[in-house]
Amino acid sequence: MRVLLMCSFLLCVLCVSALTFSSVLFVTPVLPKAPEPSRSYLGFDRNVYPGDTALPVLQKTFAFASYWLSPPPGEKLNTWKGKRELLVSHGFGFLVLYAGRDSSELKAETDAKEKGSQDAKASAAAAREEGFAPGTIIFLDVEEGGRLSPAYHEYLGVWSEELKRAGFLAGVYCSGIPVKEEAAVTVTTAEGIRKHGPLHEMVIWAFNDVCPPSPGCGFPRNPPAPSASGISYAAVWQFAQSPRRKERTALCQSKYAPDGNCYAPGDTAHKWFLDVNTATSADPSGAGK
C-alpha cells in the first residue's frame, strides 16, 4: 500500500512539474513597443503678415508660421503685431523672430555687447507684450552668410545670455550654405555659430535653398528632416525662398511659379508669396500655448 501511495505521489509531482514547465514554455513574451517614427512638419515664413483671410487657406498646408517681434529687414513696420491669438485659433505653431543687426553696426566688441543686451531686452519685452510664454525660443534673424566677425559673435553671445535671463530661449536663423573663402577653405555660418564658445546652446534654423539638397518650391506630405539641409543639428530648415535665386535653384525638382516666387497649393490666385520650412516640431518655438 505504501508503495502504491508513494508512486501516486511521485506521479502527481511529475504531472505538476510538467504542467509548470509547459506553462513556462508557452508564455507569450511581452515585447517592448517600437519607437514611433520621427516626422517633420511644414511651415511658412514671410516678412509681411499675409492677412486674416489667408489663414484658413495656409492652414491646410502648414503647421506653423513665422511671427515677427520687430520690423523685419527692409521694413519700417511690424504687420504681425497683435495677430498671435488669431493664429493660435487657426491651430498654427510659431517661429518667433527678431531682426538681428548688420555687421556694419558692430565694429567694436564693447559696442556689440551693448547692442546685444539692448536687443535681447527689446525682444523679450515684445514677446511678453504679444503673449508668448516664458521658455519660448526667439530666433535672431542673421541675414549675412559666410564667416561672422569676432564682434558679431560677441553680440550673439550677449543676446543669448541676456535673453535666457529674461526667461526666454535663444535661437538663430542663419545660412547653412557653405561659402568658399579660399581654394581649400569653406565656411558655413551655422557651423561657425555652433562652434563659437557657449553659442552651441542656440537652436539653429538654417536656410539652404540650393538644389540639391533643397527639393525646391514643394509641399510634400512627408517633408524632409531639417538635418537634410546639410546642418545635422538644425531644428528648422528653410528650403525654399521667394523670390528664388536662379543660380541656386536651377536643378530644383519642384518648380517655382513663373514670377519666381513660391505659393501655397491653395493660393491659386498667387496672393501670398512665401518661404517654406520643415521642422522637427509643429511648434518650433514652443510658443503655441
Describe this structure in words.
The chain is built from seven helices and ten strands. Mean pLDDT is 87; it is low at 1-32. It starts with a helix and ends in a 10-residue tail after the last strand. The longest helix is centred in the first third of the chain and has 24 residues, at 2-25. The chain is α/β, with parallel strands linked by helices and 289 residues long. The strands form two sheets. An eight-stranded mixed β-barrel has the order 1-2-3-4-5-8-9-10. A two-stranded antiparallel ribbon has the order 6-7. The chain is globular. Strand 3 (93-99), helix 4 (109-129) and strand 4 form a beta-alpha-beta unit. Helix content is 28%, strand content 18%.
Number of helices: 7
What is the number of E strands?
10
Question: Would you identify the regions where 5 or more consecutive residues have pLDDT less than 50?
Answer: 1-32
Proportion of beta-strand residues = 15-25%
Provide the residue-averaged pLDDT: 87
Please estimate the helix content.
25-40%
The H/E string reads HEHEHEHEHEEEHEEHE
Report how far apart the termini are: 82 Å
Seen as an oligomer or otherwise, the chain set is single chain
Major sheet description: 8 strands, mixed, barrel
Rounded to an integer in angstroms, the radius of gyration calculated over CA atoms is: 27 Å
